[in-house]
Prior knowledge:
Blueprint: E1 3-7, H1 12-21, E2 27-32, E3 49-53, H2 59-73, E4 78-81, H3 90-93, H4 97-122, E5 130-135, H5 139-142, H6 148-168, E6 173-180, H7 193-197, H8 207-218, E7 229-232
Parallel strand pairs: 1-2, 1-4, 2-3, 4-5, 5-6, 6-7
Amino acid sequence: MTVALVIGGSSLIGQAIVQELCFHYDYVYATYHLTEVSSPVASPSPERIIHVPLDVQVYDHIKVLLDSVTSKHGKICALVYACSYVSQSEYKDICSPEYVEKALRINFMSAITACTHFVELASSTPEQPSCIVLIGSEAGIYGGDGIPLYAASKAALNLFAKGFARQIAPHNIRINVVSPGIVQSGQNTILDPAFLKRLPFKRAATTAEVAKAVSWLCSSNSSYTSGSVLSISGAR
Length: 236
């Protein structure tokens, strides 16, 4: 039995990832925030999707979820961390210690907690390969526009994955980052047509395109790929 866990499975990108992974895993766990109402992800096999509430700001809750899923199924084969937090007025909010702490906790620290505890559990069965995929951002490479803290947190994910990959390779565990550019999702659901015309492909990426990159990194087709940052930028 194969199991994948998508932390942040209620976002538009997260939902697309859950839907795509359903083609490759027996069960896919998808988390949603306690303040959200879980809505079923459209899938040809909805019985394979298990929705679970999770507050990613509480590190112990992440560990308990990983323990619970592992206890029930024996092993989690793939972990995807797809949570992000950014304010549309970050240039103002960055002066607030509360905003800085929340953003770094969700974008970076909770991802580290999930990764390290996942490895603790998965390393006990190295004969079965495991993988981690973190959802980063091209802002973590070029610095973003008016979102310096968000960009810094995503850059930190990139460097963490590169270093952590060497540490976990002996346990037959891989880790990679998918780094989307402009995606038709979240705050970018409605994009200015004039802006899109300036992009090399004259459009934004779709959530499905991001999800397929995640799926490839979770598959045996990428069995020697680890510590990489896969850019989904459309040549931007």
